[in-house]
Amino acid sequence: AQSVTQPDIHITVSEGASLELRCNYSYGATPYLFWYVQSPGQGLQLLLKYFSGDTLVQGIKGFEAEFKRSQSSFNLRKPSVHWSDAAEYFCAVGTTNFGNEKLTFGTGTRLTIIP
Amino acid sequence: DSGVTQTPKHLITATGQRVTLRCSPRSGDLSVYWYQQSLDQGLQFLIQYYNGEERAKGNILERFSAQQFPDLHSELNLSSLELGDSALYFCASSVEVNTGELFFGEGSRLTVL
After folding, report:
1. Which residues lie across from B22 on neighbouring strands?
2. How far apart, in whole angstroms, are the C-alpha atoms of residue B60 and residue B58?
3. A56 pairs with which residues across the strands?
4. CB 3.0-4.6 Å disulfide test: which of A59, B38, B93, B97 passes with B25?
């Protein structure tokens, strides 16, 4: 069974600073990897996804993530954070069974932005 | 706005009671998923339906059941409620192909007293 680890429960970053959120996964086959963001009182929104090909993927809101098979990682990055980026971020791994898009989510990283 | 609608947004009930949560997926999406989000368990996959048929099952208790109707809306039924069932229940939907992109509703917050 697949699993996801997000080692950082809470991260605080100054506005304008760079950001990296860590994600490690465990899955026997080639993983489908995702980052979702949850703003307060909202549902989850997809930031980006990796299926295959280029290991550096671009997402919405200026986010990017890099898939590193050797490290079983899929870290999320942003060069300069904005106050509106304060939210909870979830990494997820998906199965590769056609028609079954069950995702396994990590426990999330709460991002706080300070002025 | 993801296009997924969940009702009710908030629900307070007592132990032992039964509630029904409703989800309308995005127009055209055939798959519906239910997730439970709680502080101690995080986001847990409960169940998936595809075009009316159960497709995958996760950590769903026997006291819980779900179905997807011909118009593709889905209902999650929670019975014999316990304090530990208090959580945020999300519905998500996706298109037919295996894109892995789920569109989440805003959730139904259930409080069991």
Report:
1. B7, B75
2. 6
3. A66
4. B93
Cβ–Cβ below 8 Å for A44 and B102: yes
A58 neighbors A67 (Cβ within 8 angstroms): no
Residues A43, B104: C-beta atoms closer than 8 Å: yes
For A42, the closest of B58, B98, B106 (CB atoms) is: B106
Enclosing H/E stretch for A64 = strand A64-68
Asked if A35 contacts A63 with a C-beta cutoff of 8 angstroms, the reply is: yes
Compute, in degrees rounded to 10, the torsion defined by CA atoms A71, A73, A76, A79.
0
The answer to whether A2 and A104 have CB atoms below 8 angstroms apart is yes
10-residue stretch averages of pLDDT, chain A, 115 residues long: 91 97 88 91 91 90 95 96 96 70 87 96
> Do the Cβ atoms of A101 and B4 come within 8 Å?
no
- Given 3-state DSSP classes, what are the helix, strand and coil percentages for chain B, each rounded to the nearest 5? 5, 55, 45
Q: Letter for the amino acid at B50? A: Y
